[in-house]
Structures are given as structure tokens and as C-alpha cells.
Amino acid sequence: MPPGRGRICPARSFPASTCFSYTTGPGIPGPYTVLTMNYLLWISYKGTRYAGFQVQPNAPTVCAVLQDAMQAVLGQRPDVKGCSRTDSGVHARRFALSFCYTGKVPMAKLVPALNAHLPPDIRAVDIQPVPDDFHARYAAHAKTYHYYILNARVDDPFTFDTCYRVGPPLDVAAMQAAAKQFVGTHDFSALCASGSSAAAHGDTVRTITDCTVIQSGNQIVISVTADGYLYNMVRILAGTLVDAGLHKRTPESIPALLESRDRRQAGPTLPAKGLFLEKVEYPRLNAVL
User: Fold this and answer.
1) Are 54 and 61 in contact (CB under 8 A)?
2) In 3D, which of 93, 83, 73, 81 has the Cα closest to residue 38?
3) How do 219-226 and 142-151 pair as beta strands?
4) CA dihedral 61, 219, 141, 240 (to 10 degrees)
5) For 120-150, how does the pLDDT look when each residue is reduced to its tens digit (9 = 90+)?
6) Is 87 labeled as catalytic in the residue annotation?
7) Distances (CA, A) of 38 to 98, 110, 132, 191
8) What is the CA radius of gyration of the chain?
9) How far is Cα 98 from Cα 136, in angstroms, rounded to an integer?
């Protein structure tokens, strides 16, 4: 960083959320410390128009749009560490990302400033300083996803792009009984789409700590909390629970399905439009997104 630019002050003790670099220059007795703060930014977005969070060539993504806003506000394009790699069309009520920033814009002004440059389907929600070794993906203890189903004969014009419609009546009690069978530490190969790099390396064991099915009127919400997920795991799990709700499989068949490790034995992969990242847990920060 050239002398006279950025936030420069004499070297002294700083919080754990401060990253350090040193510079000297004409008129600067140095070494001086350039404060680079590591931040955790919480955002919410509707993923309908985007090819997921992570930057993709020749496709609009949430990260690329966010970095455009950062460039406009901060005068720089920070390297962003997202908590998850949401697929094309998936939404997020609370998505976490971390980034380092050296500059003059106060933390308290970052959220409104970013929102002034973001489209209405992406919102910055909150921000906080975090330790300099914090990584939004690797520090996450658990993530909760919700899959939204409309159990009705016709689509709702106000929610058609944020839920999946199932016409025939669903047996929610059967779905809940099947959901309980997924709780625990298992090899979830049967719920993993082909082409998964984790599956290719044999890394298919995950722990689901909670899996529930809740109905409110004609809306059904499948909630899954786990320490990690395989490619399309929640959407396949949701499709398997819909099969149970349609009496195409029994709840008692789930353990054998998991034991088979055979994707062909599981239900269909439901569309991305019904899937939401609901929250991310960071015990170190005593924060739940």
C-alpha cells in the first residue's frame, strides 16, 4: 500500500480481528501498522436469477454481484470466503461470508452502503469483526436448510418460484417418520448426486442432528440440520420424503436405503427453487445466522 493511503497508525496492541501489514515511506518513521480488519458479513438473497453463490464464468452469481457492490463502496474487490456453495436457483435467508478490508469506510456504514449498490434480491443484513483466522466455511459448526413444498392442486402465483408444488395429498406423519431415520452419523452416498468430488474421494459420511417435517395449511417445510452436506443431498432427501408422503416407500425402508449407498434407491432430486439456507452456526462467536 502506498504511503498516505488506507488507515495507518503506529504499531501497538489490537484486537484478534485485526490483520497486520507493515509499510514505510517518505516522512513515515515506520514501521507503521496498516489495519486490515476481518469481517463476517451476513446476507440474504433470492437465488432465482443466479447460478449459485460462487463466481462462475459467463453466468451471474451472488458473489460476483456482491463483489461489484464492494468495489463501488470500498474501492477494492476483497477475496470473499462463503459459508456454502449454494447451487443455481437456491435461496438463502442467512448466508455468511468473511473478507478482509483495509480502508476508511466504518464498519457501521458498510451494510447500508452495500445495499445502496445491490439489487433488491440481494440484501446485506449485518456485519461484525471476527478473528483474523476466521473462515466462514471452515468455522461453521452446522448449517440448517429448509425445503418448501406447496401441497396443492395449483401453484400459488406469489410463491411459485420459492417452493415446489406436489398435487396429491401428502401423508405428513409418514414423512416425519421417515425423516427421523436420517438423523445420526451415516454414509449418505445414496443421497449424493453423481459428479460429487466428495464422493469421488470417499468422503461421504455426515452427521444429521435434526430432520423434521412441519405442515402449516398447504405448506410443508422439511428442515435439515447437519455438520455438512453432499452434492444435492437435501434435495434428494426431500424427494425421498415426498415418496414416503405419497406412500411410494415406507419409513422403515430408509435404513436399508442408506446402507445400500445406491443413489438409484433414493427419491428424485427436487428442484432447487424450494431450497433455502436458513441459518449457520458459529459456536466460537456465540452467533447463529
Assistant:
1) yes
2) 81
3) antiparallel
4) -90
5) 999 999 999 999 889 999 999 999 999 999 9
6) yes
7) 7, 13, 6, 36
8) 22
9) 5
